[in-house]
Specification:
It is built from 8 helices and 10 strands. A 3-stranded antiparallel β-sheet has the order 5-4-7, with helices on one face. The protein starts with 5 loop residues before the first helix and ends in a 23-residue tail after the last helix.
Length: about 300
């Protein structure tokens, strides 16, 4: 504190004055003016608040730019990666929070997917068989983290395709080429059973399986065609023979019937000779028969031997 003159203040020299804030005293027109000085550290107090607010906004913008939220869509699941390590928790559909720069979320589709594959193999009788199959499958929603940890995203090329090839080979080797066609439902069930066992241990579930087509070698298909032609011809010949036999049996039956009719007629004539005249009268048209020399010829009743 600065005093120009104690006497001017009317204060005895021995008086102690305690002032909480530093003051500046000056005279103007024989009047003393007092100006308080601001405390140390309290200069422009609003500037600190502005600085804090600005820093908070910057931190918020940085956090938002790091995308702390992740959206899991319908038919999807999220695998949480924390500092590169796969976590046990699987994120279901909806909005989820993740720690920026620490956690990462891998989204995996768990809806039913379809794929069609050609699988060459051999039948039990060593015929080349090219099997075209269609597979519907989906990822196990509760174990997508294990799938990502052990296999990764390329599970179709690393797991499904090899499993299909091995399953088709194992199943078709149990049937001949002809049985593959004749027992197609049984072959389908066998392939599906093997495939379900192989994919189930790899967190992949089989929804449906079907055999689109069996393709054999040209020589085998030609042999099958020739066999079918021969079978058709043999069937035609058998049908013709059966028809001839039926027709012959019909003629024999007709002849027997005619012979029996003749026998019955002869027996009737033998027992009743007048039956001949009766039959003649039935067939007479009412005109007398003519003979040379004119006139008509009367009926002559010839005696018959008894």
């Amino acid at each position: 504190m600065l005093f120009r003159n104690y006497a001017d203040l009317g204060i005895r020299p021995t008086l102690r004055v305690t002032i909480a804030e530093p003051l500046v005293f000056y005279y103007s027109d024989s009047v003393m003016n007092v100006i308080p000085l601001p405390r140390k550290g309290s200069v422009m107090p609003n500037m600190k608040m502005v600085g804090y607010l600005t820093g908070g906004i910057l931190l918020l913008l940085i956090a938002l730019s790091a995308n702390p939220f992740v959206m899991i869509g319908a038919g999807e699941r999220g695998v949480v990666m924390q500092l590169g390590a796969v976590q046990e928790k699987v994120l279901e559909e909806g909005l989820h929070f993740r720690v920026p720069f620490v956690q990462r979320v891998v989204v995996i589709d768990v809806r039913t997917q379809k794929m069609q594959v050609n699988a060459p193999s051999y039948s039990r009788d060593l015929q080349n068989v090219d099997t075209v199959i269609a597979l519907n499958f989906h990822v196990d929603p509760t174990r997508v983290n294990k799938l990502w940890q052990e296999i990764g995203r390329d599970f179709e090329g690393r797991i499904i395709h090899p499993a299909i090839q091995e399953s088709v080979k194992a199943a078709t080797a149990q049937f001949t080429a002809a049985e593959l066609v004749e027992k197609r439902p049984m072959v389908k069930d066998e392939i599906k059973s093997i495939l379900q066992e192989r994919l189930g241990g790899r967190y992949l579930l089989v929804d449906d399986f079907s055999i689109v087509d069996f393709k054999f070698s040209e020589s085998y298909e030609k042999a099958i065609e020739e066999k079918q032609v021969a079978q058709q011809q043999a069937l035609k010949a058998e049908n013709d023979l059966r028809r001839i036999q039926v027709e012959a049996e019909q003629r024999v039956a007709t002849a027997k019937a005619e012979a029996e009719a003749i026998r019955i007629t002869a027996e009737a004539l033998r027992q009743n000779p007048d039956l001949i005249q009766l039959e003649a009268v039935k067939k007479w048209d009412g005109k007398m028969p003519q003979f040379a020399g004119g006139g008509s010829m009367p009926f002559i009743n010839l005696p018959t031997g008894r």
